[in-house]
Amino acid sequence: MRYRILFLSVLSTSLLGQISEDPEDMIASDEPFSVNAGMMTTQITGEGYVVHLMEGVRIVHGSAVITGDSGYADQEKGIVKVLGQVSVRDEGVVITSPAVFYYRDSRRAEASGGAKLISQGQEIMARKLQYDRNTRISSALEEVTMFDPQNNTYLFGDTGRYYMQEDYGIMTGNCKMLSISGDDTFQVTGDTMENFADSGFYSVTGNISVQRGTITAQSHELLYFPDEEKVVLFGRLPWISNQHSKIWGDSIIVWLDGEEIARLVSWINAGGTFEENQSVNQIYGDKITLDFYHNKPRFLEVIGRVNGSQRTREEDGI
Question: φ, ψ for residue 199 (rounded to 5)?
Answer without folding.
Answer: -100, -10
